Amino acid sequence: MFDKIKGHEQVVFCNDEETGLKAIIAIHNTSLGPALGGCRMQPYATVDDALEDVLRLSRGMTYKCAAADVDFGGGKAVIIGDPAKDKSPELFRSFGQFVESLNGRFYTGTDMGTTPEDFVHALKETNCIVGVDEVYGGSGDSSIPTAQGVLFGLQATNQVLYGTDLLSDKTYAIQGLGKVGAKVADQLMSAGAKKLYVTDINPLALMDVQALGVKRNVEIEIVAGDEIFNTDADVFIPCALGGILNDRTIDQLHVKAVVGSANNQLLSEHHAGMLKEKGILYAPDYIVNSGGLIQVADELYVPNKERVLRQTKAIYTSLLNIYKRAEEGGMTTVEASNLFCEQRMKSRARRNSFFSHMKRPKWAVRI
Ligand SMILES: NC(=O)C1=CN([C@@H]2O[C@H](COP(=O)(O)OP(=O)(O)OC[C@H]3O[C@@H](n4cnc5c(N)ncnc54)[C@H](O)[C@@H]3O)[C@@H](O)[C@H]2O)C=CC1
Ligand SMILES: O=C(O)CCC(=O)C(=O)O
Description:
Layout: E1 10-16, E2 21-29, E3 35-36, E4 39-42, H1 47-68, E5 73-80, H2 89-101, E6 106-107, H3 116-123, H4 143-162, E7 171-175, H5 179-190, E8 195-199, H6 203-216, E9 219-222, E10 235-238, H7 247-252, E11 257-258, H8 270-277, E12 281-282, H9 285-288, H10 291-298, H11 305-329, H12 333-355
Parallel strand pairs: 3-5, 3-6, 4-5, 7-8, 7-10, 8-9, 10-11, 11-12
Antiparallel strand pairs: 1-2, 2-5
Helix pairs in contact: 1-12, 2-3, 4-5, 4-10, 4-11, 5-6, 10-11, 11-12
Bound molecules: 1,4-dihydronicotinamide adenine dinucleotide (NAI) and 2-oxoglutaric acid.
GO molecular function: nucleotide binding; oxidoreductase activity, acting on the CH-NH2 group of donors, NAD or NADP as acceptor
InterPro entries: Aminoacid_DH-like_N_sf, Glu/Leu/Phe/Val/Trp_DH, Glu/Leu/Phe/Val/Trp_DH_C, Glu/Leu/Phe/Val/Trp_DH_dimer, Glu/Leu/Phe/Val_DH_AS, Glu/Phe/Leu/Val/Trp_DH_bac/arc, NAD(P)-bd_dom_sf
Pfam family, one: ELFV_dehydrog_N
């Protein structure tokens, strides 16, 4: 087990037979501050699958926090269960009690399969919850800034590919039309996208986007499953599961770039090299999808949407800088991005231990 969790500070298995809660909380690194990361609910086939997912996701949060320049560390939680069938207020209260037991080392909120409403129940047990609705003292749906961040990432990418920030007259292939993907699709239509290829396992999500396409006069083509990798779109936008950029799918891709919200898009880091070899520009996921993190981290200062938007806009310049560093250093965009984050963590961690009280975040207003 210790080999498996190598590199992580703490992994907590949460078991409550009364509510049926089976969850894992993984804290990767708290050298920049307490761990922060959403909670995913998914019917994992095995506990090992759930563990692998939470370990990968929490590690990604460490880099995301460093890149977005928020004083938090990397953590994430997964609940093993079917979001359509296994949710109950008691289950989320039980999860909240486990979060509370970590005594401020871990802050959490939504991710795939969970909604802000779920965490209103958890909030009854712990203050370490972010991203609930404003009426409960939270900053609201974090998928709104996440989707905005993806749009800024797309603009930066179009700037490199075509010399313009405009998103119009291009075709995009979106995988996953959930909280983030549906908003990205909506905004791309507003921005004048020529055509969207879309896929989702939820037929209702597909019907909604198709109806919107008719209203906005934008062509929508629904494709089944893996066909999303094989469209003639200009940009592929993954907004569902991780690990979808792998030997098999990269072979099929003939887009010019990949820019999406899904966490851990690359099955393994060497897949960034494969994309580079194929001439596909890859926007590192944790740079592009940091809008939600920016909002939930900001929430602890007292929520402020303008401040969040300003910081989310910085994704545009961060991504351009990463593209430039990668080009100049002959690296993949992921290598360039990881290097930048590791340098920042090294210098900030030292600063934190010199000047900060151990009990961070020092700005938390809800403790
Ligand atoms: N919500 C947020 O603010 C953030 C989300 N992310 C990441 O973005 C991705 C999407 O997140 P959300 O939109 O919040 O999740 P969500 O649960 O609201 O939506 C996910 C969508 O993907 C669909 N889906 C699941 N498996 C699929 C498959 N095999 N093929 C096609 N579609 C599939 C689902 O039916 C659903 O519509 C996740 O990887 C998440 O970790 C990252 C940062 C922040
Ligand atoms: O979006 C959130 O609520 C928290 C941040 C997070 O979990 C993520 O960026 O993956």
